[in-house]
Amino acid sequence: MESKEHTPAIVVTEIGDCISTWNEVLLGIEEEGIPFRIQHIPSGEVIDSAWQAARQSPLLVGIACDREKLIVHYKNLPASAPLFTLMYQQDNHARRSIGNNAARLVKGIPFRECHS
């Protein structure tokens, strides 16, 4: 459920060409009914990019990913303290749960347990 520019959405920043690696995270967000918007940057640091994405999102939640890891950040946290970190080795269940939890942060409901 990728949204258009004007719809409030979680901002997902793709660093390089890696979004297909993290498709389960996007499906987890979609399962919870929260829109997301993907933006691409050619290079960057993942934690800072996730925090910048959270600052851009009207929903206050941002995600950034590269080939190695995915970060979920919340605008009200310090830039150096992301909420969730997911490494590429983790399984699809963990990836889906992180997506669910990013959306649940927007909804203000309890997180699901993540098992990798």
UniProtKB/TrEMBL annotation:
InterPro entries: B12-dep_deHydtase_bsu, Dehydtase/Dehydtase_re, Diol/glycerol_deHydtase_re_ssu. Coiled coil: none annotated. Pfam families: Dehydratase_MU. It comes from the Bacteria. This is Propanediol dehydratase. It comes from Escherichia coli.
